[in-house]
């Protein structure tokens, strides 16, 4: 992940409004045929992430915005 957009990255414009975004981390290396012999992703590998973007409904007004779920090297759990 970084500030640069990779070639082939899907981009789209959204109308002005509020959206809920859910990001799923995909374990593509666990999928059959997802890894080459050298450990790199194969042509059949799934993407690293799947991102779902949907307009919020009138009852959706509370969102998590500050969750860290990955361990940081050297930090205690």
Report the radius of gyration as a whole number of Å.
17 Å
Count of discrete alpha- or pi-helical segments spanning 4 or more residues: 0
Could you tell me the number of beta strands?
2
* Apparent shape: extended
Order of helices and strands: EE
Spatially, the strands of the biggest sheet line up as 1-2
Low-confidence segments? none
How much of the sequence lies in strands comes to 15-25%
How does the helix and strand content classify structurally?
A: mainly beta
How confident is the prediction overall: mean pLDDT? 79
How would you summarize the topology of this molecule?
Blueprint: E1 19-25, E2 49-55
Antiparallel strand pairs: 1-2
Q: What's the short story on this structure?
A:
With 77 residues, the protein is mainly beta.
Keywords:
2 strands, two-stranded antiparallel sheet, extended, 18% strand, mainly beta, 77 residues
Task: Tell me about this structure.
With 77 residues, the chain is an all-beta fold. 0% of the residues lie in helices and 18% in strands. It has a two-stranded antiparallel sheet with strand order 1-2. The two termini are 23 Å apart. The mean pLDDT is 79.
